[in-house]
Every structure is written in C-alpha cells, then in structure tokens.
C-alpha cells in the first residue's frame, strides 16, 4: 500500500518500532543477538502501539511487516500484525535486522562490563571506536553497514509503499545516524523506547553511490526540534533536557546523556 494518487516519487515510508520489553531489558542486561521472550509489560506495549496505529491510520497504509528473527522481535511482530488485523503471512523475517552482536558482553549486566571486558567497554562507551570488533562479535561499522544496506534494500523493493519494521535499539541508532548524518563517532542519545513508532522516509536520490535521501518524519512522540543534535567527534555531547513519552512509559534524557537511556540501548 502507500501512495494512491498523483505522481509517484518512489519513496518508501518506514514505520519502525523497537520490540517490547523483556526481563533482561528491565535488568539492564545486554541481549545483543541472544534470545529472550517478551515479558507481560512488553506484550502490552506492543498491543498499545497497534491500537494507536489503528486510531491514527484508517485505512492502514501498510500490509507488510519486516522483522528481526530474534525472539523478542518476532514475538512483537506477531502481536503487532494480529492487533492490526493483518494476516500472519504479512511478516517477513530478515537476518540483517538483528541487533548488534556484542560478542562476549552478551548476557552480562551493563554495570559489570567495565570490569569484565575493559577493552570492549572503552571502545564502546569511552572512545566510540567504530572499527573495534567486540570479542566474539562485530564492530559498530559492521552493524551500521549491515543495517543501512538492509533498509535500503527493503525500500528499493517497495517503492511508493508504506512498510512496518520491527527491530532493536541498536538498529534504530543506526537509522537515526544515517537520517541525521550524525556519523559513526558521535555518541547518540536518541530515545529508543520499547514499542515506540518512528517514521522515516526514504526517497530515491538518483545517485548510485548513495541511492536514498533519508528523512525523519516522526520519532516516537518527541518534538523533532528537541531531538539530540550530532556532536563533533572528540567533544562533549551537550543535549537539552526533554522527556519522551510513549503511552505509560517515560524516559528522561538530561544534558550530557543519561545512563537510563544509554544503558538499555543494546539490551
């Protein structure tokens, strides 16, 4: 579905959601590519998002839902399409939409990482080294190339259509970076609330080396003017204080970045 009249632009509208909450999310434990089911809160979060989408869009503009095959996303996608009245056959699982492979850090609490894996911790949280391959895992750049390539492949396959994508916090971080030209070095504090809906438009650019123009049309319920701005590499990341609200969930981001948001980014 998508554009129904007028000149076709080839653009693809992506309705991107992070999966619902898991117990490891609540504990602050790194999931990465390990499987965890949703908890009851997570299931309800996705049901609420389905209800909100049905209220906002009549008729629904999409009939396909791409998802990471990891359990927390697959389960979220199944709940979402059922809540929207879409058939189970609308779900398409795509390995390239998986969360960051955090290697040996997976399964550990965020609070343990600095002591257990100092090299990985410094590369991730202190130096933001995009080319450091986590022990047993992948680098930021490897994930970014995988994710951006997958989303542009999906957009190219669905010109003038609207598509649902169920994925992870790390994947959303990459989409935000691409759409805002943030680059790989700056820290990111864009809110990635469980089951929140983010709307990104990809429009063909006519440039083979960079085939789409990326535009964020909606990021949860956050005022776009208050979204974090890119920081220069090697500088402090100064952000305004704001509150992102999705249903009954509230996340506060304070100046300099908050552990409450960063701590669940890849969990």
Secondary-structure map with pairings?
Elements: E1 12-18, H1 23-27, H2 40-56, E2 62-67, H3 71-83, E3 91-93, H4 113-116, H5 118-126, H6 140-157, E4 161-167, H7 169-180, E5 197-204, E6 212-219, E7 242-246, E8 249-253, H8 259-262
Helix pairs in contact: 2-3, 6-7
Pfam families: His_Phos_1
Protein name: Phosphoglycerate mutase
Active site: 19, 99
Written overview of the protein:
- The chain has 8 helices and 8 strands; from the N terminus they run E-H-H-E-H-E-H-H-H-E-H-E-E-E-E-H.
- By secondary structure, it is of the alpha/beta class.
- Strands 3-2-4-1-5-6 form a 6-stranded mixed sheet. It has a two-stranded antiparallel sheet with strand order 7-8.
- The relative contact order is 0.18.
- The C terminus is likely disordered.
Radius of gyration: 18 Å
User: What structural class do you assign from the helix and strand content?
Assistant: alpha/beta
Going by CATH, what is the homologous superfamily? Answer: Phosphoglycerate mutase-like
Q: Ends: how far apart?
A: 33 Å
Number of strands: 8
Q: What fold name stands as the CATH topology?
A: Rossmann fold
Biggest beta sheet attributes: 6 strands, mixed
